[in-house]
Amino acid sequence: MVYQDQLLSQTGNQREQSHDPTAHAEVLALREAARKLGRWNLSDCTLYVTLEPCPMCMGAILSARIPRLVYGCHNLKLGAAGSILALHDFPGLSLRCRVDHGILQDECARLIESFFQKRR
What is the pLDDT, as a whole number, of residue 119? Predict the structure, then answer.
């Protein structure tokens, strides 16, 4: 998470370690940023992630009023920022978020591949 061109929070998925199904990297980064800024409204922050957020995370991103999301790789199983769903642009929702994707896509794909190889 970036605020005023400075890194505010950085984390990874912790579902396995914490036994918490909501401990996705995006949710943890939002929590840490909100704690550091002392507010839930993160309308002046940008969130950068390796993999396209799932519906739960995209809902949290919208709820936090994040104006811009940047991600590297599409999530073809659960993507909610354009590949399967586009919650950031869903008709009827008043919350919006600019989404930029494919940024450092090859590097992000290598990181994800390495992560899953280590888990096996």
Answer: 65
Report the alpha-carbon distance of residue 115 to residue 101 in Å, rounded: 20
Residue type, 42: L
The alpha helices in 23-77, defined as continuous H runs, are 25-37, 55-63
pLDDT classification of 72: cutoffs 50, 70, 90: very high
N residues, the chain? 120
Provide the token pair at 93.
Answer: 């929702």
Better-predicted residue by pLDDT, 91 or 34 = 34
107 is catalytic: no
What separation, in Å, do the N-terminal and C-terminal C-alpha atoms of the chain show? 29
Residue 4: phi and psi, rounded to 5, are 50, 50
- Choosing from 16, 26, 107, 113, which is the catalytic residue? 26
Residues 4, 44 contacting (CB under 8 angstroms): yes
Q: Which residue has the tokens 């996705």?
A: 24
pLDDT band at 112 (very low <50, low <70, confident <90, very high): confident
